[in-house]
């Protein structure tokens, strides 16, 4: 039997208490609101948003959902700190930094690319929350092992919170939402972790709603192949034609759509993920993939800090 030190027991008690206390910082469950636009009204659909963007100003959307399962695992294990990975504008990095500050967990972020002369707002916020930042060359980053795992009592979180642990908290999106009258549920797909959690829960409870993904990066069948390989999930509708040029890319059409949607609904969409989901829903109404009279639920996965690197595009 593995011997557990008194110090480790105290650490577990402290972390479990803090895991409960972090919920006082978060809006859980997040609300569901109906939104109306000219195009949704013209299509004759009812459009709803699961407002995970309202969970927390920084720890929002699926960033928290993925981290919740990871932090629960951390509290149960024998770890001293957390290390994770991402680009200079990573929503995941700053969400991890903020969460670790609340939980009082030491954390490090491995940043893709050489250290810039002037740090952007996301990097400054990571440091403000106490995250240690280590910059590595793009080549070294590409060749590093960025998967979920443990090295010398440090829990390594994969880029974007991807991995099996990340799917656990994503199931809560469905668990806390009444979808009994919903025909289709749409969510953005970057790593496939969030939709894998949604689909896993939907199939466990035999949910009647269809879960659909909108791939936000280039590559025909990319997410379809990834969720099959990584999570054993097949038979899910993934729209891979609405990426607007690729990951973190935008188009004039997308920017105009975001501007119109924001003015019509008062809901701000991020430029990387949920905006592409909503544009895809609009186009599915036009091409007949979504039928008149259907009720559609879109998951707003937060990530509004993505505007730190995209605000200049609003001048288009």
What's this, in brief?
By secondary structure, the chain is an alpha/beta fold. It has eleven helices and eleven strands. The longest helix has 16 residues, at 6-21.
Q: Roughly what is the average pLDDT, rounded to an integer? A: 93
Major sheet: arrangement of strands: 1-2-11-8-9-10
Distance between the termini: 64 Å
Report the structural category: alpha/beta
The helix tally amounts to 11
Q: Kindly provide the name of the CATH class of the largest domain.
A: Alpha Beta
**Backbone CA Rg:** 20 Å
Number of domains: 2
Largest sheet at a glance? 6 strands, mixed
- Counting copies of identical and different chains, the oligomeric state is single chain
Shape: globular
CATH architecture of the largest domain: 3-Layer(aba) Sandwich
CATH topology of the largest domain: Rossmann fold
Helix content: 40-55%
Weakly predicted, low-confidence segments: 1-11
Question: Using DSSP, what is the number of strands?
Answer: 11
Percentage of residues in strands: 15-25%
Order of helices and strands: HEHEHEHEHEHEEHEHEHEHHE
